Amino acid sequence: MTKWANSLIRISGYEVETLQKRLGEIATRRAAAEMRVAVLDAEMEVERERAAVDAHAAMAMTAYTQGWKLRRSIAESELAVVAAEEEGARDALAAAFEDLKKFEQVAEATRLSVIAAEARVETAALDELALRRAAR
Predict the structure, then answer these.
(1) Full-prediction pTM beyond 0.85?
(2) What is the percent of the chain with per-residue pLDDT over 70, rounded to a whole number?
(3) How far is Cα 16 from Cα 98, in angstroms, rounded to an integer?
(4) What gap in Å lies between CA 1 and CA 117, rounded to an integer?
(5) In the predicted model, is pLDDT for residue 1 greater than 70?
(6) Residue 106: is its pLDDT beyond 90?
(7) How far apart are CA 44 and CA 70, in angstroms?
């Protein structure tokens, strides 16, 4: 394989690895955002149960619900942003992987054409040798 092909493959491979790490970090952030939404929902359920048995908690439930809606809206917005970022990262990773495969295919085609050219030269040399022997 030629030096340029090795360099392109190595650079492209590094880009794929970098994008895979980035996608992993984004997936971790997405999981954390999903967890925040789930925790908020669980907290709301606990407060509803508490309000059902405690009159004082029932009076504060309206204010709690308004605050909960705001916090949940923020958490859902964060989740949407992270989901969009994840989609972009997946697209970038797919494109980088396609580029890597293209470089590998070009390098393989180049390697095979060099082998074929060497085989043609060898075949031509053997043919010439056979013709010389036959001419004797």
Answers:
(1) no
(2) 99
(3) 10
(4) 14
(5) no
(6) no
(7) 12
Residues 6+ apart with CB under 8 A from 23: 86, 89, 90, 93
Reading the block at residue 85, the tokens are 């970022």
Task: Give CA–CA dist 75/32, Å, rounded.
Answer: 10
Q: Is 103 exposed, middle or buried (0-12, 13-18, 19+ CB in 10 A)?
A: buried
Chain position carrying tokens 């970038």: 92
Q: Mapped to the 3 state alphabet, what secondary structure does the chain carry? A: CCHHHHHHHHHHHHHHHHHHHHHHHHHHHHHHHHHHHHHHHHHHHHHHHHHHHCHHHHHHHHHHHHHHHHHHHHHHHHHHHHHHHHHHHHHHHHHHHHHHHHHHHHHHHHHHHHHHHHHHHHHHHHHHHHHHHHHC
pLDDT band at 9 (very low <50, low <70, confident <90, very high): confident
Summarize pLDDT for 50-67 with one digit per residue, the tens.
999 988 888 999 999 999
How many C-beta neighbours within 10 Å does residue 120 have? 10
